[in-house]
């Protein structure tokens, strides 16, 4: 059996390729589109006051026939998919599932005060956020958002996650919650007011509607990051890029005067946030009843020859507007589809040499008509023209970069591996022919990064010194497979959402390549870190069978693959390759939406080959963090 497990990435007919797929130094928490239910407070329950500024010592309430509940919304950028766990003053916990980001939990018989943890995924990224309540909040609403997480962290003087785990909150009072919530609101109030939020807003309890209310629009432009090494939070306005620091160790009452985030420059942001989202809904709306003509899509995209659309021509993954529209108009997975989990990462209104038109940077997920996720798309730019209209600009890249995190199981032996794949192609050499190599740097990679070399015949760029291989294996228990030899502890130390930088170089290997005067440097952030060997061994992989037998197939006829154990929420990838000589090979791949039961099938028909020297196939699925789980067969 061959031990070179590299798989060349075949070209895809899909408009969006399947997944062009926190804590280390900074834990980034997105605040966009957080939602919440109705007001707090209200009737108390036995053993606790119905209102007031403080709580008596924690004690068991007497039995009561009236249920005591909390409800609300858990959101971090978008509604959270997962669970809410409430922990009481004595360490007792109860967990319920979130439904569309909403929860309702019965705490009858539990002991106030309470700390809440919402845990799961938001747009495919693992998210853990917290909130808190006292007896005075019983039978009311407590929302769980990055803002409430910061309130809890300020009370704790450390990460809210540590506060929840330690369970040292029996003395938490309503006065503390109010002081820290009011203190945070004061820092944000100019931005809130500029976007139409009422000055009386209660960050813990005020009801608002995701994607439409003034508070939601304000949260679209705010980000919170916490440095666990210093316990200092940074709050950033993504429109103005203004930042303020918040030392978790300093209580609100002890803080010296802090200049709040300014509301200046926010005049058009509220309306623009709605219009930016509308561009995506208008684009996918063209596919509501079938595949449109490419010409129907072009008006929604920037045109470098028409100044009214802004100063940027369209380019995405090295495709121009006509190529992009043509690919989109031939992608059946877009018919009846939706673009969901939309997060606006930044809006840049500053006009200078580096930004010649207002630009928004957006991340979203493409789901088919049945809600199956086909891709998570980062770095999409939406540009505002001189006519006031926002249009798609693409990611602006002159290289096609498609990174993946893989865990792979070999069908023949059952051995597993954990790897990173940085698939790089140059579709149009006319705008990047000066690029000879691309160096990828980031967590888990060698100090100097991984240099990928331009192949003489086109296609995927292999890692230098590894012809035809663009996989970087971190660890494996497969015999004969060369790996980086990372321990499970080293892999576990990789940030939860690691970011990698792609820097293009000219032929001398040291001069950074440029396009139109700008360095060709791109970044990609994964929604989860690579799996450890233990995690990879314990993971659930697809199963598949073939007709005819894989070892006998040489092309020239149908080859049917039936797969099971797929994640029904994500498109599965089917891949088949036949190699009959050093430069003679054929391959095909397809993304297929599985059934609700996690099954899917694909029939290949590759051209007939001569003597086959190597066969390679796999079926893969994704976990909730867009990490690929593949079962591979080869001979």
Task: List key phrases describing it.
alpha+beta, 9 helices, 32% strand, disordered N terminus
Give the SSE layout.
Blueprint: E1 27-30, E2 69-73, E3 81-87, E4 93-97, E5 102-106, E6 114-122, E7 125-133, H1 146-156, H2 160-166, H3 174-194, H4 214-220, E8 222-227, E9 232-237, E10 243-247, H5 269-285, H6 294-297, H7 321-328, E11 338-348, E12 359-367, E13 373-384, E14 390-394, E15 400-410, E16 416-425, E17 437-441, E18 450-453, E19 471-476, H8 488-492, E20 499-505, E21 514-515, E22 518-519, E23 521-525, H9 533-538, E24 543-547, E25 559-564, E26 572-581, E27 584-592, E28 600-604, E29 614-622, E30 628-634
Parallel strand pairs: 15-30
Antiparallel strand pairs: 1-8, 2-5, 3-4, 3-6, 6-7, 8-9, 9-10, 11-12, 12-13, 13-14, 15-16, 16-19, 17-18, 17-20, 20-23, 21-22, 24-25, 25-28, 26-27, 26-29, 29-30
Helix pairs in contact: 1-3, 4-5
Report on the structure:
The chain has 635 residues and is α+β, with helices and mostly antiparallel strands. Helix content is 14%, strand content 32%. It contains 9 helices and 30 strands. The strands form 8 sheets. A 7-stranded mixed beta sheet has the order 19-16-15-30-29-26-27. It has a 4-stranded antiparallel beta sheet with strand order 1-8-9-10. The protein has a 4-stranded antiparallel beta sheet with strand order 4-3-6-7. Strand 15 (400-410) and strand 16 form a beta hairpin. Helix 1 crosses helix 3 (174-194) and helix 4 packs across helix 5. The longest helix has 21 residues, at 174-194. It is globular and about 80 Å long. Mean pLDDT is 88; it is low at 1-13 and 18-57.
């Amino acid at each position: 059996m061959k031990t070179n497990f590299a798989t060349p990435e075949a070209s895809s007919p899909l408009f969006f390729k399947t997944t062009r797929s926190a804590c280390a130094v900074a834990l980034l928490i997105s605040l966009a589109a957080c939602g919440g239910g109705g007001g707090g407070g209200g009737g108390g329950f036995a053993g606790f006051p119905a209102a007031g500024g403080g709580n008596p010592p924690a004690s068991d309430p007497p039995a009561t026939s009236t249920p005591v509940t909390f409800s609300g919304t858990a959101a971090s950028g978008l509604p959270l998919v997962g669970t809410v766990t409430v922990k009481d003053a004595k360490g007792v916990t109860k967990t319920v599932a979130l439904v569309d980001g909403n929860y309702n939990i019965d705490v009858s018989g539990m002991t106030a005060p309470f700390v809440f943890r919402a845990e799961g995924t938001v747009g495919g990224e693992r998210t853990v956020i917290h909130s808190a309540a006292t007896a005075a909040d019983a039978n009311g609403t407590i929302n769980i958002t990055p803002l409430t997480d910061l309130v809890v962290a300020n009370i704790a003087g450390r990460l809210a996650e540590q506060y929840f785990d330690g369970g040292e909150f029996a003395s938490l009072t309503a006065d503390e919650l109010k002081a820290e919530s009011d203190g945070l609101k004061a820092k944000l109030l100019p931005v809130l007011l500029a976007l139409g939020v009422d000055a009386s807003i209660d960050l813990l309890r005020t009801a608002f509607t995701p994607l439409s209310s003034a508070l939601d629009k304000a949260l679209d432009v705010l980000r919170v990051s916490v440095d666990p090494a210093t316990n200092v939070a940074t709050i950033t306005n993504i429109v103005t890029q203004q930042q303020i620091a918040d030392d978790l160790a300093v209580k609100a009452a002890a803080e010296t005067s802090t200049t709040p985030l300014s509301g200046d420059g926010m005049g058009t942001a509220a309306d623009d946030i709605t219009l930016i989202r509308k561009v995506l809904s208008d684009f996918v709306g063209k596919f509501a009843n079938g595949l449109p003509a490419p010409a129907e899509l072009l008006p929604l995209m920037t045109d470098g020859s028409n100044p009214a659309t802004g100063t940027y021509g369209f380019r995405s993954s090295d495709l121009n507007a006509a190529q992009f529209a043509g690919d989109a108009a031939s992608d059946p997975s877009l018919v009846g589809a939706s673009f969901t989990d939309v997060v606006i990462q930044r809006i840049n209104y500053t006009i200078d040499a580096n930004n010649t038109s207002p630009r928004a940077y957006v991340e979203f997920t493409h789901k088919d008509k049945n809600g199956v996720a086909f891709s998570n798309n980062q770095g999409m730019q939406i540009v505002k023209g001189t006519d006031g209209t926002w249009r798609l600009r693409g990611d602006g890249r002159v290289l096609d970069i498609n990174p993946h995190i893989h865990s792979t199981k070999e069908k023949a032996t059952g051995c597993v591996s954990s790897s990173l794949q940085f698939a790089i192609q140059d579709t149009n050499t006319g705008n990047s022919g000066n690029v000879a190599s691309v160096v990828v740097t980031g967590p888990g990679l060698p100090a100097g990064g991984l240099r990928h070399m331009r192949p003489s015949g086109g296609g995927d760029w292999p890692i230098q010194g590894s012809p035809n291989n663009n996989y970087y294996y971190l660890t494996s228990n497969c015999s004969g497979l060369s790996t980086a030899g990372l321990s499970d502890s080293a892999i576990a130390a990789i940030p939860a959402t690691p970011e990698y930088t792609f820097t293009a170089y000219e032929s001398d290997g040291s001069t950074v390549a440029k396009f139109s005067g700008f360095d060709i440097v791109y970044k990609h952030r994964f929604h989860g870190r690579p799996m450890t060997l233990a995690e990879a061994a314990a993971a659930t992989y697809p199963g598949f069978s073939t007709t005819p037998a894989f070892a006998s197939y040489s092309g020239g006829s149908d080859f049917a693959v039936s797969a099971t154990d797929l994640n029904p929420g994500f498109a599965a990838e089917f891949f088949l390759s036949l190699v009959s000589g050093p430069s003679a090979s054929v391959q095909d791949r397809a993304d297929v939406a599985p059934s609700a039961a996690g099954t899917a099938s694909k029939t290949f028909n590759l051209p007939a080959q001569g003597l086959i020297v190597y066969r390679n196939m796999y079926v893969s699925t994704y976990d909730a963090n867009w990490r690929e789980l593949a079962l591979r067969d080869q001979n």
